[in-house]
Each structure stands twice: as C-alpha cells, then as structure tokens.
Write a structure and sequence with these properties.
Layout: H1 22-31, E1 36-45, E2 55-59, E3 64-66, H2 71-87, E4 92-97, E5 109-117, E6 122-126, H3 132-141, E7 145-149, E8 166-168, H4 172-178, E9 186-189, H5 194-204, E10 211-214, H6 218-230, H7 235-238, H8 254-273
Parallel strand pairs: 6-7, 6-9, 7-8, 9-10
Antiparallel strand pairs: 1-2, 1-5, 2-3, 4-5
Helix pairs in contact: 3-8, 4-5
Length: about 280
C-alpha cells in the first residue's frame, strides 16, 4: 500500500496591502476554503468614521480586507469577528457607541452585521452510475461542492456530470490511499460492484467524516457490518455508515433516490451547523 503524501497546508491569503477589494477577497477566501466573517455597517448615527454599506472581511489570523473606519471600533469588531470564527456562531448584530464604549471622539454610534462565511462542504461521490447523475445535480444546487470518482471514462465524463466541481477518472481505491479526506467531508458510495462498495467502505469507515453512506438495502448494510467486525473493526466503527441511504420517501426512480439522499445530506449539514 502506498504511503499517503503529507497533507499540504492551506495557502494563506495575500496581505491587506495587496488585496483591498472586499468582494474579490471574499471570493478568493471561499475558493481556498478559508473561513472568514463579512462585517457590514448597517446603521450609522451621528459622527462616525464610515457610513452604511462599508464592509470588511476578517480572517482567523491577522488578515483583514476593507475597512469600516479604522481606529478602536474597527479593532473591536475584528476581535468580535475572530471570536465568532472560534465559536462558530452564526450571523449577529453588534452596536457600539463610539465615545461611551470605545473612547473615540466621534460621538456617534455604529451597528455592524457580522456573517460567518464558510466554504461549501465537499461531497465525494464514488461511482458514476445513473443515481449519481441527478444526485450531483441536486447536491450542487443544495450548496455542496461535488467530486465524482470512477475509473470508467465512458461513465465519468463532463457530458454526464456538467455541474461537478471535480471529476476523477481513476481507481477509487487507489485515490483513497493517497487522499486525506477532511473531517467535514460527505461521502456516498454507489459503485457498480458490491465488492468495490465494500472495499471503499473499509477504507473510509474509520475516518472522522460528516457523513458516510453506501447504496443498498438493510440486508446489505448488515452483511457489511458483520464483515467489518469479522475483519477486526470495532462494532462502534462498523456502525458509522448509512445503508440504505436517504430519507424514506418511497423512492423508486434514480431521480427520486437522489432526492432522498440529498435530503438526508442537507439534514445532517443543518444539524451540524446548529450545534
């Protein structure tokens, strides 16, 4: 088995001096999957540094892009934004009296709306069959970044999967040997072969994932769990996958099955966000 290459560190955003466009910075940070907070002045009364609409993007480190006026108010808002990143809190409104609260001579008040910006979760779809096509289309529309893996080039191609973020026409087992899945990844296994389904499941079931599901019946799931335990996996680990996948809506067609699976993925994602 090949040793997995060391995980590359995420590239840091450019310093503020080179990146003053807030929206350009926001797009770049989301592309790099770097969490940040978008801070927008939504109310300004009296004498204050900047007026309604001023924006600033704040990252976990010392990076910030744009400005809401500088000085003490900007420093405090940056601290509050980084705290929001640390505790994963959602959108919130903060208001500061610039003289009473911060000792600034302006004398006015500013209200700033802070929105946590988190990159779309990645959904890895192993298998490029008939269910995978609508699954990827629906998942993309629902806010997932999809990656399809299948070594069959006549199945895994851009004509069949025009909306996916990544298309890997290669051995799924070999890819998993080299790929370090992030802890917030969603994985669905629905290949054309039960034996391959099991090999892929065995390769990822011990990893900390947001979601892991395998296409099939309850009987298939029970057999896979028995095999995992027989091969030395702890029983609690052998329970870390869903089979059958999806919300029970009586799905029959490929499109209906895809809808049920995406509904389950959304339910898991929203549940994780609310914690």
């Amino acid at each position: 088995m090949r040793a997995a290459p060391p995980k590359a560190s995420a590239p840091k955003p450019e310093p503020m001096a080179k990146r003053n466009d807030v929206f350009e910075a926001l797009v770049d940070l989301r592309r790099r999957k770097i969490p940040c907070v978008l801070c927008t002045v939504v109310e300004s009364k009296g004498s204050s540094p900047l007026k309604v609409g001023a924006k600033m993007v704040v990252c976990e480190d010392s990076c910030a892009y744009g400005t809401i006026g500088g000085g003490a108010v900007e420093h405090v808002v940056q601290q509050q934004a980084r705290q929001a990143l640390a505790d994963g809190s959602g959108a919130k409104l903060v208001t500061h009296h610039l003289t009473k609260d911060l000792g600034m001579c302006c004398g006015g008040t500013m209200s700033v709306f802070m929105e946590l910006q988190v990159a779309a979760p990645t959904l890895y779809v192993f298998g490029a069959g008939h269910v995978s096509m609508p699954l990827c289309a629906f998942a993309t529309s629902a806010g997932f970044e999809t990656c399809v893996v299948d070594e069959r080039s006549d199945w895994a191609n851009s004509e069949r999967f025009p909306t996916v973020a990544s298309l890997r026409c290669e051995s799924a087992v070999a890819l998993l040997e080299a790929l370090e899945l992030p802890a917030d990844a969603y994985v669905v296994v629905l290949t054309h072969d039960h034996a391959l389904d099991y090999e892929l499941l065995k390769a990822v079931v011990g990893k900390p994932l947001a979601y892991l599901g395998v296409i099939g019946s309850q009987r298939k799931g029970a057999r896979f769990r028995q095999r995992l335990v027989a091969e030395g996996f702890d029983e609690s680990v052998a329970e870390r996958f869903q089979t059958p996948m999806g919300v029970d809506i009586g799905a029959v067609t490929a499109e209906e099955i895809a809808v049920s699976i995406v509904a389950e993925l959304v339910r898991v994602r929203r549940s994780r966000e609310s914690k």
